[in-house]
Write a structure and sequence with these properties.
The complex is a heterodimer. In chain A, 0% of the residues lie in helices and 51% in strands. Chain A has no helices and twelve strands. In chain A, the strands form three sheets. In chain A, strands 2, 5, 6, 10, 11 and 12 form a six-stranded mixed β-sheet that branches. Chain A is globular and about 40 Å long. By secondary structure, chain B is mainly β. The radius of gyration of chain B is 13 Å and the shape is globular. The chains are: A mainly beta, B mainly beta.
Chain lengths: 112, 115
């Protein structure tokens, strides 16, 4: 079956530091890939997505590139802010029935 | 105008009780889901419905029964609650089943604590 592997957190960074959260996937065929973010006390919301190889998703300064050769979709941001503190979930969608497979979530804490 | 709403937001109850969580989406979506998020933030799908029809039913105890009176609502009823049911339950919706780009929209969650 499909699976998504994320680096375990928590990740603690100082404001303006560079962020990378690693994500790799296994799937039959070529899944669509997503990053969702969950702020404290809230539900998940889509951060960015990519649907085919070499696509780059971007939003709010975050980027991730769909790498078929390494089956990866790493999340990056050049300069994090305190307001980026949240839990980040990598996810894949393949096959029918909209069954999304989520990673375990990586908690990011940004300190001033 | 909340896109996906859930009630209640918090639910504290005794073991053995029966409880329901309600979910409504006003996005006009065809597909709705229930997820369970445990204390370690691991998110696992439980059910999905498309136009009131059950599509995904993961390995979930029979004590959990979803009900979709119409495509804008998907309620979750839980019988004989157990301590291990304590978690945050998220409802979500998406436009339809077919698209590879479909984003899921999540509700704010219902925090269930079984004592």
């Amino acid at each position: 079956g499909n699976s998504v592997t994320q680096m375990e957190g928590p990740v603690t960074l100082s404001e303006e530091a560079f962020l990378t959260i690693n994500c790799t996937y296994t799937a039959t065929g070529y899944p669509s890939l997503f990053w969702y973010v969950q702020y404290p006390g809230e539900g998940l919301q889509l951060l960015l997505k990519a649907t085919k190889a070499d696509d780059k998703g971007s939003n709010k300064g975050f980027e991730a590139t769909y790498r078929k050769e390494t089956t990866s979709f790493h999340l990056e941001k050049g300069s994090v802010q305190v307001s980026d503190s949240a839990v980040y979930f990598c996810a894949s969608l393949s096959g029918g029935y909209q069954k999304v497979t989520f990673g375990i979530g990586t908690k990011l804490q940004v300190i001033p | 105008d909340t896109a996906v709403s859930q009630t209640p937001k918090y639910l504290v109850t005794q073991m053995g009780n029966d409880k329901s969580i309600k979910c409504e989406q006003n996005l006009g979506h065809d597909t709705m889901y229930w997820y369970k998020q445990d204390s370690k933030k691991f998110l696992k799908i439980m059910f999905s419905y498309n136009n009131k029809e059950l599509i995904i039913n993961e390995t979930v105890p029979n004590r959990f029964s979803p009900k979709s009176p119409d495509k804008a609502h998907l309620n979750l009823h839980i019988n004989s609650l157990e301590l291990g049911d304590s978690a945050v339950y998220f409802c979500a919706s998406s436009q339809d089943l077919a698209g590879r780009q479909e984003t899921q929209y999540f509700g704010p969650g219902t925090r269930l604590l079984v004592l």
